[in-house]
Write a structure and sequence with these properties.
Elements (H helix, E strand, L loop, with lengths): L2 E11 L3 E19 L6 E5 L9 H13 L6 E7 L9 H16 L6 H12 L3 H8 L2 E7 L2 E7 L6 E7 L5 H6 L7 H20 L5 H4 L6 H4 L6 H10 L4 E4 L6 E5 L4 H14 L4 E7 L6 E3 L12 E4 L3
Parallel strand pairs: 3-4
Antiparallel strand pairs: 1-2, 1-11, 2-4, 2-5, 5-6, 7-9, 7-10, 8-9, 10-12
Helix pairs in contact: 1-2, 2-3, 2-4, 3-4, 9-10
Length: 315
Amino acid sequence: MRCEVRVPASSANLGPGFDVLAVALGRYLSARYEPDETIGELRVVVRPELHGGRNLVAEAMRYYASSTGRSLPGGTLTVDSDIPVARGLGSSAAAIVAGLVLANELCGEPLGRSELFRMACELEGHGDNVGAALFGGVVLAVVDEEGPQAVAVPVEFPLVAVVLVPDALGYTSDARAVLPRRVRRVTAVRTAAHTALLVLALATGQPDLLRTAMTDELHQPYRAVLYPHLEEAIDRALVAGAYGAALSGAGPSVLAFCSPERASAVQRAFADLLARRAMDGEALVLPIDRQGAQILRADERGPVSAPEAISSHHE
């Protein structure tokens, strides 16, 4: 039986929530598997642009099979994605979640979403992006005595994300390499306070708190060395009316939270920055995806329309 899954992009950290907070965004990776007994194994026929990286959908499917002791039916895997790769928008997390959910569906869904989340954390190394990709909305990833847990953070007011997506690539390994091995106690205390304020602002419908809550000094000041556009992008977004803004994941993308009414102004501010700096890239207005990974039935399939973007390209 043909099986298909669709998984959203995500933006992690949201400022101070380093490796623990993420939001699902309305761009998607889809993976379709068509069993074929004559093949006898998993065969990948279409892959998204991976910039030399691995196909994590197929790897996650094989990991699921080896971890659960189950056998996947032979067949053809087709992957399509409009999530920019290596831009800080959770492309790897979406691929991992897609592979696990797809394999679970092919095996008759023996595992619940919480078990799939723990498996995704093992592959990804942390739970922020995979939690948002799997469950949708804003997710707080924590670890307790039972292992990784994903806790939903309600968003109690209309909210959209405007994302500046440079064409230049950013790699998590590089973004982590510039971070200090130790932080001052005052930095840790302020980071904890801002993270708590961020969750409070979203859950209690106080968007005016986001400007302060999304301020970060744990990782962004160091990553600004890699991304010279970061501080200006945040400033321009705030001037244009965004509630708050931050580096998206490991970068180089920058995310701004704003009301639907201010989205166009913030998008224009990002587009102006691209033009002024002669940077190739685009400015996207993305909804918050509140459903997470979805199995698409035959009557639910259809093209996923990409949001309108303002682009800047220079020869």
